[in-house]
Design brief:
The protein has eight helices and five strands. With 178 residues, it is mainly alpha-helical.
Length: 178
C-alpha cells in the first residue's frame, strides 16, 4: 500500500507549542496557547460589544456584523454574509429578518428560480451603520492603543490574516489526520 503524503497537520511539530507539566501530564499553557488567546479576546470583545450596541443602538453584535457586511458588499445574499464573516446560517437569517422588520435592511428575490435573496441597507440602515462604526472604531483603537501602527500591521499580517487563510485547511481535516 503506497504511503500517504504528509499533510500539514502531520508535519506540524507540537513540541514548540506552549505546554505545562502537571503531575506528569502535558497541559495547556493558556498564556501562550494561541487558540485560547484568540477565542478569549474574541468572545469577551464580542460580548461587550453586543451589550453596548444593544444599549446604545438597539442591535446586537450579530446584527451589527450583518450591517457592516452589507455596507462593505451591498446587495449580497445571506449565504455570502455567512461565508465571509463566519456566522451561523440560522443566526444570520434571524438577524436579517429582525433588521428588515425595523426597516434597516431591504431584501428581495432577484431570480424566481433561485430562492436566495439579495439584501442591502436602507437609508435608515446606513444611518445606523454610520453611528455604530464610530463606536466600533473607537473600541478597536482602545484595544490596540499599546501597539504602534507598524505593530498593528505586523499583527494583522503575520498572525491574523495568515491564520485566517488557514481556516479552510482546518475545516478540511478530521481525526484521521492526527
Amino acid at each position: 500500500m503506497p504511503e500517504r503524503a504528509d499533510t500539514d497537520a502531520q508535519r506540524t511539530d507540537s513540541t514548540n507549542l506552549p505546554a505545562l507539566d502537571r503531575d506528569g501530564h502535558a497541559v495547556l499553557d493558556l498564556d501562550g496557547y494561541i487558540p485560547f488567546l484568540i477565542s478569549a479576546i474574541g468572545n469577551k470583545w464580542s460580548r461587550s460589544s453586543s451589550s453596548l450596541y444593544l444599549k446604545e443602538f438597539g442591535v446586537g453584535v450579530t446584527e451589527w456584523r450583518i450591517i457592516a457586511m452589507l455596507a462593505i458588499e451591498p446587495r449580497i445574499t445571506a449565504y455570502r454574509t455567512c461565508q465571509v464573516i463566519g456566522l451561523d446560517k440560522a443566526a444570520a437569517s434571524r438577524a436579517l429578518k429582525a433588521l428588515e422588520g425595523r426597516g434597516l435592511v431591504r431584501s428581495w428575490q432577484q431570480d424566481p428560480q433561485n430562492h436566495r435573496k439579495l439584501s442591502e441597507l436602507t437609508p435608515d440602515g446606513w444611518a445606523l451603520h454610520d453611528r455604530i462604526i464610530q463606536t466600533a472604531r473607537r473600541r478597536e483603537a482602545l484595544m490596540l492603543a499599546d501597539l504602534s501602527r507598524d505593530e498593528v500591521a505586523t499583527l494583522a499580517e503575520l498572525l491574523l490574516r495568515r491564520l485566517h487563510r488557514r481556516i479552510p485547511d482546518l475545516l478540511a481535516i478530521d481525526s484521521e489526520d492526527f
